[in-house]
Design brief:
Structural class: mainly alpha
Radius of gyration: 20 Å
Distance between the termini: 41 Å
Largest sheet: none
Order of helices and strands: HHHHHHH
Number of domains: 1
Number of helices: 7
Shape: globular
Length: about 180
C-alpha cells in the first residue's frame, strides 16, 4: 500500500508541470506513441526475470532507478523554460523527454510485472481469480492514493512569485489571482 509514495509526485505531476512550463499538450501526447512498442515488448522480456522463486527481486532492483528518474523528471521541468525559444522547444529536448519516459516505462513495467508475478505465486489456485483480483485491488489502491495526495499538495508546495507587485506574496489563491 505504500510502495508508490517515493515516486508518486514525479509520476503524477511531471506532465502537468511540463504543460505549465509551456510544452504543448499535443506534443506530450505524441511522445506516447513511441512508447507503445516498448509497452508491448517489456512484459515479455521482464517476465523471464520474474518467473523464478523470488519474483520481487526485480521489483527491488527497479525501485532505486525509478526514484532517480523522479529527480530526472524534476530536472526536465526545471530545464524546460531554459531551452524554450520563440518557436517552441528544440528537438533535442523532446529526445531527452522520450528517452526519460522510455527509461521510466522500463522501471514501471519491471515493478508492475514483478508484483503481478508475486500475486500469481501466492494466490491459491482453488480460488485463483478472486484472490488475484483482491491482491490487484490492494496493489492499485497503493498506487492511487499517493498520486492523489501528491496532486493535492502541488498547489500548497509550489513557490509562486508575484510579477509587478512589490511586497506581495502570492501564497493564497486570491493573492495570486490579483
Amino acid at each position: 500500500l505504500t510502495f508508490q509514495v517515493g515516486f508518486s509526485a514525479a509520476d503524477a505531476v511531471t506532465g502537468l508541470k511540463l504543460v505549465e512550463e509551456g510544452v504543448p499538450k499535443e506534443h506530450l501526447a505524441l511522445l506516447a506513441v513511441p512508447m507503445v512498442p516498448l509497452q508491448i515488448i517489456l512484459p515479455l522480456v521482464i517476465s523471464k526475470y520474474t518467473a523464478g522463486p523470488q519474483p520481487l527481486n526485480t521489483f527491488y532492483k527497479a525501485m532505486p532507478y525509478r526514484l532517480l528518474l523522479g529527480l530526472e523528471f524534476a530536472f526536465l521541468v526545471w530545464w524546460a523554460p531554459k531551452v524554450k525559444h520563440e518557436g517552441g522547444f528544440p528537438v533535442y529536448y523532446y529526445a531527452v523527454v522520450v528517452l526519460s519516459y522510455a527509461l521510466h516505462q522500463i522501471t514501471l513495467y519491471s515493478m508492475y510485472v514483478a508484483i503481478m508475478a508475486f500475486n500469481a505465486k501466492v494466490s491459491d489456485p482453488l480460488i485463483g481469480g478472486t484472490y488475484m483480483t483482491l491482491l490487484n485491488t490492494v496493489s492499485n489502491l497503493g498506487g492511487n492514493w499517493p498520486s492523489t495526495v501528491a496532486l493535492w499538495l502541488v498547489d500548497p508546495l509550489t513557490v509562486k512569485e508575484c510579477a509587478g507587485a512589490q511586497g506581495h506574496t502570492c501564497t493564497t489563491a486570491a493573492a495570486a489571482e490579483v
